Each structure stands twice: as C-alpha cells, then as structure tokens.
Amino acid sequence: MLKMARRKVTSIGIDTAGEGLHLVQLSGHEAGSEALKLAFHPRPEHIESGTAAWQHWGVEALQSLVKQGGGHCKLARGVISASQMIVETVERAKLKDERFLETMVARMKPRIESDCTKQTLVIKDLPIDQTYTLVMATDREWVNRYLATYEKAGLEIEALYTWPEALNQCYCRFFGRRESDRKATVMLLDVRRDYTHAVICRHEKIFFARRLSVGGEALSNKKMLDRLTLEIGTCRRDFAMLYSDVLLERLVFLSGASVPNEVYMSIAKELEMTALVGDCLNAVAQTSFVTKQKEFNRTSGSWASAFGVCLM
C-alpha cells in the first residue's frame, strides 16, 4: 500500500479586531505557501467590538467563512484585540509587586463590563533580558468570550495569542528571513482603520509594543498624519530611554496595500528612517485563488495579525 504524504497545513488564523473578521489558512508556515482560505467579513458600523452583538455577529461570520471552499481542518488560532489588553515593558521585579497588579486591574476595569480583579486578570510576560519583560494583560472574561465565539462557530480553538506576538510572527516568517534581518532591531507598524499597532523587536525578541491612536481612515488629513508620525516618534524615544545602546534600524509597515504607499514614505521621511512595506497578500503563492481575492481583500484593511497567528 502506498502512503500519500499529507500537506502540513496551518491552523486557521482569525483576527476579529478593527475593520471586521479576517480568516487565513495556508499550506505551510513560510513565505510562498499557498493560501487555502483567505476571507474577510466586514463588521457593521453599529456593532461595537467586544459586545454581545459583536459575539453574535462573530459566530455567524465565522460559520459563513469556514463553509467557503478550501482548507483542511477546523483547528483555529485567534488574536486578542489591542482594545481588550494592556501591553507594557516593565522591570521584571514589578511582577511580584502587589501594587503593580492593583494598577493593572485599575487600568483594565474600563475595558470590561464585568468587575476585573486580581483573580480574573490574565497576565502573560515575555522576558526580554535580566532587567525587563514585556507584560501583556487581559481579563479572563475576554478570553472566555473569544473561546465561546469560536466554539459556537464549530471551530476547535487551539490557542489565543496577543497582537504583538501575531505581528512579530508575521514579520519573522514573511519579511525577516535574511541573516541580516535576524540581527536588526526594527519597528513593525500595522495601520488599522481606527488605530495603529507598533512593535519594536529584534527578530523573535519583542522589546516594546504600543497601540497608537490614529488609524488609516484619518490619514488623508495632514494633521492626523502628522499626529501619527509624532506618536511613532514618541515610541522611538521611549524605547531609547529603555535601551539607549540599541539602534532602531528601520520601519516595517505590515499593513501592505491597505494604506497608500506615499503615506508610509511620508512617515519614514519625516522620521529620517528607512522603511520596508510588507504585503502579506504578495508573500503567499500567487495562485488563481489569491489573484481573484486580491482586489476585494486589499480594501479590507490589514491582514498581518491573521497571517501572524496562522503562522505561529
């Protein structure tokens, strides 16, 4: 009997933040893999992210997208939205300080309807060095809502990741594969509709992450573009205060063609930095399926987080 080799397909990567629901499944974990699923479902304007209506919409949207052709499994990986998290680079010793935990609880309370406590706070930390760690916190209620949404849609949830991890993996797998990239410290920028994610990393080591207040929808306004540039510059300055001996070499825009290229170049010129534009839809194999989806999908916002969790 002949045994046929099975393709090592990825789990389904899901991002329900921002513009809507992005869903991705690939034939492998590297650039050039074939897209087996590539779908977007816009979130209606009247539905606020994280609400019961959002959860109901998410179940229906996922069920619809999963039924579409392609794909080989129902294992799913999700990413927690920046609006439902606190992310901060802190001294490692603070993690044992009760006052620090109380501060995190106080900051989380406005982000969740239920009462956040030290018992419901979920903290993940990624040690950077002997002094600092990247702390990412959310409330257990958010985790439960994501799990319930995926399960009701008929998916088997494999893992939930944070947005800094998702963007970092998108960069490492697709756009940071050269030997020189492994040694370079870069700022990843993912411009979403209403906000922008910023992550500073050296390949898989994440130093710093922050959600910025300006998104792509506002960038036709020169004042808002200047504001985003200023916020990116503030990230660079705050990072330099933590790591004065580390050179930030370039910007990497992971939001691809969802934002006009001249916007990226304007930001890079103002900050006097070199820039790379990473387009996830160009990083996968250019099959007829991808080509057919491109024109629609380029108007659907950034795919970086969905690809990132898919590639974990």
CATH fold type of the largest domain: Nucleotidyltransferase, domain 5
Tell the overall outline.
Answer: globular
**Major sheet:** 5 strands, mixed
- Unreliable stretches: 1-7
Order of helices and strands: EEEHEEHEEHEHHEEEHEHEHHH
Number of helices: 10
DSSP helix fraction: 25-40%
Distance between the termini: 34 Å
CA-atom Rg in angstroms: 19 Å
**Arithmetic mean pLDDT:** 87
Q: How many domains, in number, for the residues?
A: 2
Compact overview of the structure:
Helix content is 36%, strand content 27%.
Q: Which SSEs are present, and which pair or pack?
A:
Blueprint: E1 12-15, E2 20-26, E3 35-42, H1 52-67, E4 75-80, E5 86-91, H2 98-108, E6 121-127, E7 132-139, H3 140-152, E8 156-162, H4 163-175, H5 179-183, E9 185-191, E10 196-202, E11 205-212, H6 222-242, E12 248-253, H7 261-271, E13 274-277, H8 280-283, H9 288-297, H10 304-310
Parallel strand pairs: 1-4, 4-8, 9-12, 12-13
Antiparallel strand pairs: 1-2, 2-3, 5-7, 6-7, 9-10, 10-11
Helix pairs in contact: 1-3, 4-10, 6-7
